[in-house]
Every structure is written in structure tokens, then in C-alpha cells.
Design brief:
The chain is an all-alpha fold. Helices cover 76% and strands 2% of the residues. It has a domain of 218 residues. The longest helix has 32 residues. The two termini are 18 Å apart.
């Protein structure tokens, strides 16, 4: 274990930058600061990942107090992987956002508030992933959640306020459940450090208090990550938030919650308790499968593309939970790699849609007639993200589904493999609805081909950076699938 200052920089950089945004207020300075800080934060996470792969687990003791008495930031392969995803998406969306928010948040004098909340949310999500302390998890959950409510409420549609309020209610319930679970574990063990908890819990695992704490944590995290049927807050939150906010939250927030589920199941409670004693897979697998099929079917009938992609996200969360429910190396690898891959493709899709909203204000399918001709680069990026969502070979979506199908067949669960393949057909249906209108229908008489232009280069470059990543990591899997497999083996305590 190595003492290294990089973990604290992950949280400190965006946190301090958020405060500076409040003090500086100048739109140009604040925008530049947010972009620079997010990219520096991404560079720190890449350096942290490199250090973990080279040296092993990295620990940072806050204030010089050794764990379990002090707060520890502890980074292994799993959360280093999540940090790279969250900070990378944060940097890409921050770079893409200035043009978008100039249209969707027309009051320029308040842009500093947007970037303040954005950086706070980023700091909270990174803090959840990097901390090794259970109560710190709750603190960072609240930081990210409160800033998320603000970001969602900034949407121009008045329904954004209702969506933010609904998210606040459900998010508060989830956070309360998590806090109760943490409190019960503290009562039984006298510690909040995750590594220390893992050592002390075996002595009290048979007690009702620990079992109840486990239940509270599972339900609380499931609410946060929108696992079917606890997903009701998600569609409206994604549909009515500003485009930059939707892209950022869709690619990061639920993924960090999935990480928490993995951390609690395998690191704190241990595989034997969660899956042998509590038989959790009996509940997780059916919920995941029903969520995958149901959410995909609902997505087909949505006319609002943001809502369509939101229901698609509920289905994709089902894939991640399905991988966890297998509790095997291939299953966990599939779930973890899909956590990363879905972040890339869903961010690309929402940013491409944000480009369309920027140019013509269209976010409904019937408003996208002929956009394949008038905005060819934007629509090509959308199609690329859609192909990955379907799971076409040479895209990241194919890699995720391959591991899940292999894991299902290893267990002899061929009906589960069939559901995964069937859901790909459902994804093809709702993506095709957009493609058909954009490429095979002529623009309306009011909005002729000359009235809509391609999105500006400053917006296209971040979108296409994600598209390149979708294909690169779909062909070269050493980083994504390789690290996901290493993390899966570590969680299952299997020798590499």
C-alpha cells in the first residue's frame, strides 16, 4: 500500500474550482476555469490508474490520521477505472457545454452558477468512488445529489422543476436508506472504514442488525442507480434537464451507484454473505431481466428522444446488474466493462442530441425529418452511438454483451442469453425510428434543407472524440475488458 497525494487531488481540484466560480462570476473566466480543471482532473485520474496498475493499492490518509481512526482514500483497480470514466466524461461535457448552455440557459449572468453546481457534482461523484470510508460515501452522495437537483431544475421547460423535485424525493429516500444501513453497521462494528469493516463483519454476520443493514443498503443504492422498478425518477430528470446535464448525469451518476453496489457486495460484506447466505442473485437477476425488456419496450413508444434514451438507460442498468448477479469472473467483467462502455455511448448519444437541440430545438422524433442531410456529422455520431447501444461488432456495446452472454451460457442459463440478444433487437427498433425519420424523410416545407446548419466544430469535436473511443475500445479491449477482468478477479478474490 502506497501513500500518494493523487487521490485527494481528484476531489480537491473540482471542489476548489466550484468555490472559485462563485467568487469570480465572470462568464468567460468561469467557463475557461471549468474546462481546464476538468481536464487536469482527468489527467490526475489517468495517472492514478497508471500508478495502481504499476504499484498496487494506493492509500491516502487525510490529516495524517491512520485508518480506521481517520478517513482514508483508498484506490484499487475497480475505483480507479470508475474515476477515469467519471473525470473523462466530466472533461468532455465541460468542453462541449459552452455553446449549448448559451442557448438553453440564456441568462448569461447565471452561467457561473451552472459551472459551480457542475463542478460540485463532479467532485461528489469522484469522492464517492475514491473514499474508503462509509460515512464519507454518504457525504459525497449528498454533495452530488444536491448539485444534481439544481442542475436538472435549470431546464427551460417548467416540468424540469417537477422532475428535480421528484428526483429530490426519491434521492432523499435512497440516501436515508443508505445512512440507516451505515449507522447499523457502525453500531455493530464500531468502525466506518470499509477495509476494517470487511475484517470485523464476519464476527457479527449472523445478527439481525447486519442483515437489516444489508437490506437498507441494497434498497438505497438501487434507488440511486434507478434499478427497475425503482427508476421512476429517471425519465423525467433526463428529459427536461439541459442537454449538458443530461449527458453528464446519464454517463456518470448511475455508474457510480453501480460501483457502490459492487463495493458493498464484494468488499464490505463479501461474496459468501451476499450471494451464498443472502441468495441475492435470486432477486437481482429477475429484476435485471424484467428491467431490460420492459424499459426497452417502453423506449420504442417514446416520441421524445431524451425520454427514449432515458428508458434505454434503465435497460442498460439492467445489463450491469445482470452481470453482478452471475457473481462469476465473466459476469462481473461484463457488468464492470458495461459500466464504462455505456458511459461512453450514452454520453455520445445525448451530446449529439444536444447539438440538434442547439441548432433547431428538436428533441422529438417527428421534428428530425431530413437531419441526416442538413446535419450529417451530428447524425452520423448519433447513429454510431446507436449501433453501440444495439451491440454491433467492433463497438463497445458488443464487448459488454459478449461477456454477459458467455457468463449466462457458463451457468447453463441459455434463456438469459436469449433475453440479452432479444433486447438488442428492441434497441435496434427504437434507434431505427430516429434513423428512418432523419435519413429517409424530407425536411418539412417550413424547415427546408437550407434552414438548419451543422453544429459548430467546438461541439462536434467532443462528440466525435467519444465516437472514436466507442470504436477504439470496441476493437482494442486490453484497457477496458482487461482492467474490468482484473477488477472482477480482485472482487472474487481469484488469483490473476
Amino acid at each position: 500500500m502506497i501513500d500518494n497525494p493523487l487521490p485527494i487531488l481528484q476531489v480537491l481540484l473540482p471542489l476548489v474550482a466550484a468555490v472559485l466560480c462563485l467568487l469570480l462570476r465572470n462568464r468567460l473566466i468561469v467557463t475557461t476555469l471549468a474546462i481546464v480543471v476538468t481536464w487536469v482532473t482527468f489527467a490526475v485520474s489517468v495517472a492514478l490508474m497508471s500508478a495502481v496498475l504499476r504499484q498496487g493499492v494506493i492509500s491516502y490518509e487525510l490529516g495524517g490520521w491512520p485508518p480506521p481512526f481517520g478517513i482514508e482514500y483508498r484506490v484499487d483497480v475497480l475505483n480507479a477505472f470508475v474515476l477515469v470514466l467519471v473525470s473523462g466524461i466530466g472533461a468532455v461535457v465541460a468542453t462541449w457545454s459552452p455553446s449549448s448552455i448559451s442557448v438553453e440557459l440564456p441568462r448569461y449572468e447565471r452561467h457561473y452558477l451552472f459551472y459551480c453546481a457542475y463542478l460540485l457534482c463532479l467532485a461528489g461523484l469522484l469522492g464517492i468512488a475514491v473514499t474508503g470510508d462509509m460515512f464519507n460515501v454518504f457525504v459525497f452522495l449528498e454533495i452530488s445529489a444536491l448539485s444534481s437537483y439544481v442542475l436538472i431544475s435549470l431546464g427551460q421547460d417548467r416540468r424540469a422543476l417537477t422532475a428535480a423535485y421528484s428526483y429530490l424525493v426519491m434521492g432523499t429516500l435512497g440516501a436515508t436508506f443508505i445512512l440507516i444501513g451505515i449507522g447499523l453497521l457502525y453500531i455493530m462494528t464500531g468502525t466506518l472504514n470499509m477495509a476494517d469493516l470487511a475484517e470485523r463483519l464476519p464476527e457479527v454476520l449472523d445478527t439481525r442488525t447486519v442483515i437489516v443493514a444489508f437490506g437498507f443498503l441494497v434498497v438505497g443504492v438501487s434507488l440511486k442507480m434507478a434499478l427497475f422498478p425503482l427508476h421512476l425518477w429517471l425519465p423525467n430528470a433526463y428529459a427536461y434537464a439541459p442537454s449538458a446535464v443530461t449527458a453528464f448525469l446519464a454517463a456518470t451518476a448511475t455508474k457510480v451507484s453501480v460501483y457502490l453496489l459492487l463495493r458493498f457486495f464484494f468488499t464490505v460484506f463479501g461474496y459468501e454473505f451476499a450471494f451464498d447466505r443472502m441468495q441475492l442473485w435470486i432477486f437481482l437477476m429477475p429484476l435485471a431481466l424484467v428491467g431490460i425488456v420492459t424499459a426497452s419496450l417502453v423506449a420504442i413508444f417514446q416520441n421524445n428522444i431524451k425520454r427514449m434514451l432515458a428508458y434505454s438507460s434503465v435497460a442498460q442498468i439492467g445489463y450491469m446488474v445482470l452481470g453482478i448477479s452471475f457473481a462469476s469472473v465473466n459476469g462481473l467483467t461484463g457488468g464492470i466493462v458495461h459500466l464504462f462502455n455505456h458511459g461512453l455511448m450514452k454520453c455520445a448519444l445525448f451530446l449529439a442530441l444536444g447539438c440538434i437541440v442547439y441548432r433547431c430545438g428538436a428533441d422529438h422524433i417527428d421534428e428530425m425529418r431530413g437531419l441526416g442531410r442538413t446535419m450529417p456529422w451530428t447524425m452520423a455520431a448519433f447513429v454510431a452511438g446507436g449501433l453501440s447501444l444495439i451491440g454491433v461488432p467492433m463497438t463497445v456495446g458488443f464487448i459488454s454483451k459478449w461477456y454477459l452472454v458467455v457468463a449466462a451460457l457458463e451457468r447453463g442459463l441459455w434463456p438469459v442469453a436469449a433475453v440479452v440478444l432479444f433486447s438488442s433487437l428492441l434497441a435496434a427498433v427504437y434507434i431505427w425510428r430516429v434513423v428512418e425519420v432523419a435519413y429517409f424523410e424530407a425536411p418539412s416545407a417550413v424547415e427546408g434543407e437550407g434552414s438548419v446548419r451543422e453544429a459548430p466544430l467546438a461541439m462536434l469535436i467532443p462528440v466525435w472524440a467519444l465516437v472514436v473511443a466507442i470504436f477504439y475500445f470496441g476493437i482494442t479491449t486490453e484497457f477496458t475488458a482487461g482492467i474490468a477482468r482484473q477488477a472482477a478477479e480482485s472482487l472474487l478474490r481469484v488469483a490473476s
